[in-house]
Batch of 2 targets.
Target 1
Amino acid sequence: MDYTYLTPRQIVFGWGTRVRLGELAATLGKRVILLVGGRTLTQSGEIERLENSCRGLGLDVERWKAPNREPRVEDVDSLVESIRGSASSFEETVVVAVGGGSVMDLGKALAALLVQPERVSVREYLEGVGSGRTLTVEPLPIIAMPTTAGTGAEATKNAVISSESPPFKKSLRSNGMMPSIAIVDPELTVSVPPEVTAATGMDALTQCLEASISRRRAPLPRLLAREGAGLALRNLELAVRDGTNREAREGMSHAALLSGLALANSGLGLAHGVAAALGMFVNVPHGLACAVMLPAALRYNLDCCEQDLSELADQLPEPPARDVSPRQRAEYLVESVEKLCESLGIPRSLSALGVRPEHISDLVKGSRGNSLDGNPRGVSNGELKAVLESML
Ligand SMILES: [Zn+2]
C-alpha cells in the first residue's frame, strides 16, 4: 500500500467561526484579496463584517466579485488582469474566497495565476486541453470559507474551469492550491434555499460514496468518506426541510468538508464523470447532475463493490438488519439513496435535465477523464452509452 494525504494546514470548523477570519488571515499575510460570490451575504452586511474583522487587525482588504456561475476560462483571465492592474506586487498577500464551490475554485485559480511570471491564459495550464504548462511559482496562500455544503472545495487542491466553445470542463491542479486554512462555518449555509441545499448536499453524498469505492481509494480518505456519507445520509433531508436546523446544517457542512478531503486524496467515479459532461453539453449544475447520476452509478458498481456498499449501508439512519446478506445490504443502500433523491425532488431521468438522444455520443466522449478513470468497475463507451440511454 502507498498513498499521499494532502490536507489544509488548518481546518477551523464550527458555528460562528467566520468571526475569526481577520485573526487567521493575519497569520498568512498583510493584504487580503477577498473574493465573494452571491448577493445574500453582501446584502445582509456579512461581507462587510468580515472585511472589518480584517481591517481591525491592520490588514488591507480589496473586495472582488465572482461571476454568478461555474468559473470559465474568460472569468479567470479577466479577473487576473484586473487584479494585476490594481497592485504592484503580491507580497504578503492572501486570497480569501467566500462562497460556494464555484467561488472557491475561482479563488484557487486566482491565487495560482496572479503570481505566475508568464502572462498566459489559465487554459494553458488546464489538464488535457492546455499546452502542458505547469505552475512555476507557488500560488498565494488561500483561505476558503464555504457558504454552501457541497463540493468540499475548501479541502481540495484543484479548481474546475470550463469553456463554452470548445466545450470542456477541466481542472487546474497543484498541491499549492490546497487552501492553507479552511474556515467552515455552518451558520453561513442557513440562508441557502432548499433546492440548492438538496443539490449541493447530494454532491457531497456522491463524493463520499464514490470516494469510498473508487479504484484509487486509500485507507485514510476512505474513513473520512464513510463518516461523511453517514452524515449526509442522516442530515440532508432535514437540512432541506428546515434550513434553520443547526444540527442538520452542521452535519451537512461536515459531510461536505469530509467529502473534499476524501476526493482530494483518492478518486471519484461514474457519476462525477458524467456530471462533468452534463455540465459541458447540457449546462446542468454540478450538484444536480451528480444527484441524478448517483443511483445509476451505484447500481453499475453493485456487483464489484458489494462488500463496500454493504458496509456503507450501516451509515443509513435506518440500517438494514444484521442477518441479511451483503448483497441485500448493498441493494438496500442503493434503494435508500433512490428514496432520498425522490424525497428531495431530484428528477430520475436525464430527459428531465434537457438531455436528448442526440446528446448521448457527446456525453459519452465528454465523460472521459480523471473521475471516470477512478470508477471501480471499468466503463467502456458501449457500457456508458447503455447506462445513459436507459436513463432517458
Ligand atoms: Zn462533486
Target 2
Amino acid sequence: MRHAIGIDIGATNTRIALGNDEGELIEVVTFKTWDYQDPNLYLEKIAYAIRELRAKYKVEVAGVGVGSPGPLDMARGEVVAAPNMPFKKLEVVRVLKELVNLPVAFANDAVTAAVGEKFWGEGAGLDNLVYVTISTGIGGGVYVDGSLLLGKDGNAHEIGHVVVDSQERLTCGCGKKGHWEAYCSGSGIPKFARFIAEHEKVEGSRLMTGGKLEARDVFEAYRVGDPLARRVISEVKRFNAYGFAAIVNYYDPELVTVGGSVALNNPDILLEGLRDSVKNYTVNRPPEIKLTRLGANAGLLGALALGLGLERKVPLR
Ligand SMILES: [Zn+2]
C-alpha cells in the first residue's frame, strides 16, 4: 500500500492528512490559517505537522499534494493573490520541498476537489465531470474527455466570476461587477441581502435587525419564512441556475457535483429544483447535479491523490 500527504489550504482552516492509495485518510491535523500571518512560519507549521505524521506512522510517503485558494501561478508553484488569506504570496512548492524533502504537487483548491471526486467520489469512471464549490467564494474544477482543465496559469475554472447580473448591482471580491460569487457565495449572500433590504421595500422582515449578518442567518430566516430572506434566496437560486447553466453549456458534463460549506449546509434549499431551472438556460443535454458525497473532504482527498502522483496533469515535482 502506498501513502502520501494531502494538504487543504483554506481561508479558515488548514488541514494536513496522511492517507493511502485506497483514499483512506489515516489522520488529519487541523490548524487555523489566520494564526500565521507570516508565509514562511505558516509553511514551517505545515512541515512540522508532516514530520510528526511521518514519525508517528513510520510509512514511506510518496509525495505531498496541496490544494490552495487561487489565483495561482502554477508553473512557479505559488499562490499569488488569494483574497481571503493572511498573506498575499505563498511559495508553496519551493519552500515545502526544501522543508520536508519530498516531491510536491500543487493546484487550485476547487481543482483539487474535482480530482478527489474523480478518483474517490462520484466521478469515478466518468470522463466529463465538474465539481462546484459554494463556500466563502464559488469555484470549480473541470474534467473534459478525461482531461483535467488547467489553463495557462492553472486558473481555467474561475466559474465564480461568470456574470449573472446584467444590472451589475454588486461588486465581486475580485473587483469586477455582476459576478456569480458576489451574490451567491458565503461572503456574497449577506451583502446581497443588505443590498435588497436597502433598495427594495420588503415588509415584515426581522433579518436586518441583528448585528453582523452571515449567510447562515439568511438561510435560517428563510427556513422560518422571513420575507426578505425568501426574496434573497429566490434571487440566489435564479443566479445559481444561470451559473450552473453556463457550466453545462461550456463543458457538457455527465455529472456536476456540488460541495463547499454553503451547499453542504443547505442542499435542501440550493439543490431543490436546480436541475429543472438550469434546463431553462441550456442547449446541452442536462447532466445530473448532486451534492458531493465526499462532504468537506473532497479537497483533502484530491490533495492526497495529487500527493500519490495519480493526476498526470498535476505531477509531483
Ligand atoms: Zn469576481
